[in-house]
Specification:
Belongs to the short-chain dehydrogenases/reductases (SDR) family. The protein is of the alpha/beta class and 309 residues long. Helices cover 45% and strands 13% of the residues.
Length: 309
């Protein structure tokens, strides 16, 4: 089948989650001011947090709880009824659950762990599928879906086990789903991996209870917590407005340059990921002999043919 070249419509519809603060707010502000002919669906759990947006027929503020399938379906239905399509989805909403992971063995801790996955993984996954369904049926015009994870979608730090699990899951979901999509649908999926960003992210951290045995000040989680709460260190983090500009640039350049599966934003993210991936490659090479001796000739080639890469 012949594939129609990808192009965004002149007034594309942006659907952005987590617009109450941080990157999401910066994205919504940028679209509404620099690209006023574009149409914007700005969502947040509390509608009052979107009062900064100008009044415009091209802007639709909507309440959205990404952990609720009912709320997700309502927001998608309202958007399609109002604007007729979703051309760009940016899944940005999320938060960090931080603390001693062992404390999630308690009923309260276990509930917090499940809530983390509901918000950071299941919600974005559901929104991705809703958008994909609409985009692939949109006369081959397709669309762009960007899932904002974190450098924490490919590296880890102490105290954030469930946060990292949610981000690793969303990255794997996005990558695998991209391989299910036929080229002629013109649906482009990608991942945005920010590093540290100077937002209200730290203030919005939810906490697991302290766990017996982890009280010492030199425990890795407590050392990292001190860094995260150091306002002087936070001044070194990237500005959300700069990230928003790059994310918009990524979207608007898809027609000309295509879309990378992963876009890293921030010198900290780039440097840390380079180090982590380098170590992983070293481990992979060191384990080659062990890996090869348990398999059969031709095993790799058949896996490649089956679509594993």
């Amino acid at each position: 089948m012949t594939t129609t070249p990808f192009s965004l419509p002149p007034s594309p519809v942006w659907f952005i989650t987590g617009c109450s603060s941080g990157i999401g707010r910066s994205l919504a502000h940028l679209i509404s001011t620099v690209h006023p002919t574009h149409r914007l669906v700005a969502t947040a759990r509390n509608l009052s947090s979107l009062s900064y947006l100008p009044q415009s027929e091209n802007i639709l503020p909507l309440p959205l709880d990404v952990s609720s399938n009912i709320s997700i379906t309502a927001a998608i239905t309202t958007t399609l009824s109002h604007f007729g399509s979703i051309d760009i989805l940016i899944n940005n909403a999320g938060y960090l659950l931080f603390g001693d992971t062992e404390s999630s063995l308690t009923p309260a801790g276990n509930a917090l762990a499940h809530e983390q996955l509901e918000t950071n993984f299941w919600g974005p996954a559901s929104l991705t599928l809703h958008a994909l369904k609409q985009m692939r049926k949109n006369n081959s015009n397709g669309g762009v879906i960007l899932n904002v994870t974190s450098m924490g979608g490919r590296l880890t730090a102490p105290g954030g086990a469930y946060y990292h699990a949610s981000k690793f899951a969303l990255e794997g979901f996005t990558d695998a789903l991209s391989k299910e999509i036929r080229p002629e649908w013109n649906v482009k999926l990608g991942i945005i991996e920010p590093g540290g960003v100077k937002t209200a992210f730290v203030a919005g951290v939810r906490r697991l209870e302290d766990c017996e045995g982890y009280e010492s000040a030199d425990m890795p989680r407590r050392v990292l917590e001190g860094f995260m709460e150091d306002e002087e260190k936070q001044q070194l983090w990237s500005q959300p407005g700069k990230l928003a500009e790059e994310i918009v640039r990524v979207v608007l350049e898809v027609e000309e340059k295509g879309l990378a599966m992963r876009t890293v934003l921030g010198p900290d993210a780039w440097g840390l990921l380079r180090t982590v991936l380098g170590r992983q490659m070293e481990e992979l090479e060191q384990g080659k002999e062990r890996a090869v001796r348990v398999g059969k000739e031709g095993q790799l080639e058949e896996m490649v043919k089956a679509g594993f890469i």
